[in-house]
């Protein structure tokens, strides 16, 4: 088994380190030299009739879906995200121009599969974005788009989240171009950042200083993760990862929501992780001030050149300077390592956390 883990102590750590290669595969052949997005099976114009997008998912895939919702909104495509368990209870109305996208690593999550069935019965076009060729979602949806992350053994999803977001970014570009007939002015910068992402993740992994930080963080009463824009799904995903593998209390919030309740819980025993993507950072800096004023130690994750953020926080985890979409993913990599290190120090069952399954095939 040690050989299968390539010398890493856990599959999760191996899979965190596989992200550069997985991201390479996610985008390979899908971005042309003249910044066209080519998705196999989806010729240009394929999504021209799409009027709205529903994204349905569970767990980590739900956070990737939230990311996609913002990617689409930033290209003027109306998009909504639904937790699959809720969608099966209260399905949102679909029209014949609604594209329902199920985001599911395994392609076997029961709630997501039921949602796909409901959407199809109601006449929506369905698309599965999945890692597993031949999975139920891939077979039952009208179409499938594969993230090519390779097998993921650790119950806590890591590389598949990054690959989902990268592929969903390409899908959002394809849909937006098909619908509008034009290419957004931000596309070039976004695609360049995606192409640089494998190297940027490698860089982040090599320079991550989280070993000593983890010792310091261990044993705090609770951990909050905050972010806005693309930093919001990252905050949710990082909190999920932290609670899954450390069994410690962790919550993620939209940074703007802190003052509407969670702030009441903040004490000097609350670690606050603040994600900065390079967009709307000044607002998140205000939230950092709010929690520090209550004595909470803040760990900021931001571009290495961002001295203002570095100085405003107690601890600083740097990421390479890049586009906000990629910055969120890089911050997520730093926080994957934080969760991993803390869980390891606590001696948790990292690859198979108690009570959790890799794929939940019951509703
Ligand atoms: C389980 C796993 C999570 C995963 C979720 C959705 O809860 O433990 O890691 O995110 O299922 O799985 P899917 O295969 O649909 O992405």
UniProtKB/TrEMBL annotation:
Coarsely, its chief localization is cytoplasm
EC assignment: the record states: 2.6.1.16
Domain SIS: start-end pairs: 43-181, 213-353
Q: Give the subcellular location.
A: Cytoplasm
The protein's annotated catalytic reaction(s) are: D-fructose 6-phosphate + L-glutamine = D-glucosamine 6-phosphate + L-glutamate
Which GO BP terms apply? Answer: carbohydrate metabolic process
Please name the catalytic residues of this protein: 358 (for fru-6p isomerization activity)
Q: Give, as one word, the top-level EC class.
A: transferase
Q: Which domain of life is it from?
A: Archaea
GO MF, any single term:
glutamine-fructose-6-phosphate transaminase (isomerizing) activity
Q: State its role.
A: Catalyzes the first step in hexosamine metabolism, converting fructose-6P into glucosamine-6P using glutamine as a nitrogen source.
**Quaternary form?**
Homodimer.
Protein name, UniProt field: Glutamine--fructose-6-phosphate aminotransferase [isomerizing]
Traced from the root, the source organism's taxonomic lineage reads: Archaea, Methanobacteriati, Methanobacteriota, Stenosarchaea group, Halobacteria
User: What gene makes this protein?
Assistant: glmS
Which residues of the intact protein are shown? 244 to 606 of 606
């Amino acid at each position: 088994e040690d050989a299968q883990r390539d010398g890493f102590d856990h599959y999760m750590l191996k899979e965190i380190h596989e992200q550069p290669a997985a991201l390479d595969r996610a985008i390979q052949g899908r971005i042309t030299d003249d910044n066209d997005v080519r998705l196999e099976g989806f010729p240009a114009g394929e999504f021209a009739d799409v009027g709205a997008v529903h994204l349905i998912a569970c767990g980590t895939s739900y956070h990737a879906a939230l990311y996609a919702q913002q990617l689409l909104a930033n290209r003027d495509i109306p998009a909504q995200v639904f937790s699959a368990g809720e969608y099966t209870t209260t399905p949102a109305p679909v029209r014949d121009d609604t594209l329902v996208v199920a985001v599911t690593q395994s392609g076997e999550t029961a709630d997501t599969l039921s949602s796909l069935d409901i959407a199809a019965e109601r006449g929506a076009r369905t698309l599965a974005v999945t890692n597993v060729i031949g999975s139920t979602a891939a077979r039952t949806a009208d179409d499938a788009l594969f993230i090519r992350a390779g097998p993921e053994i650790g119950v806590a999803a890591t590389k598949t989240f990054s690959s989902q977001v990268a592929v969903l970014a390409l899908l959002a570009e394809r849909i937006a171009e098909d619908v509008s007939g034009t290419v957004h002015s931000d596309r070039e910068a976004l695609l360049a950042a995606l192409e640089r992402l494998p190297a940027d993740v490698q860089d982040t992994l090599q320079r991550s200083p989280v070993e000593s930080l983890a010792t310091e963080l261990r044993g705090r009463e609770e951990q909050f993760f905050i972010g806005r824009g693309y930093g919001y799904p990252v905050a949710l995903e990082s909190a999920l990862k932290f609670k899954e593998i450390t069994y410690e209390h962790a919550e993620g919030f939209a940074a703007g929501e802190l003052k509407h309740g969670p702030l009441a819980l903040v004490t000097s025993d609350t670690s606050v992780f603040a994600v900065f993507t390079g967009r709307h950072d000044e607002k998140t800096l205000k939230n950092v001030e709010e929690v520090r004023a209550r004595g909470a130690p803040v760990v900021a994750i931001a571009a290495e050149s961002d001295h203002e953020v570095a100085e405003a926080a107690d601890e600083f985890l740097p990421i390479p300077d890049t586009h906000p979409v990629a910055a969120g993913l890089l911050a997520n990599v730093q926080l994957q390592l934080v969760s991993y290190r803390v869980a390891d120090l606590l001696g948790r069952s990292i690859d198979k956390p108690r009570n959790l399954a890799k794929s939940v095939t019951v509703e």
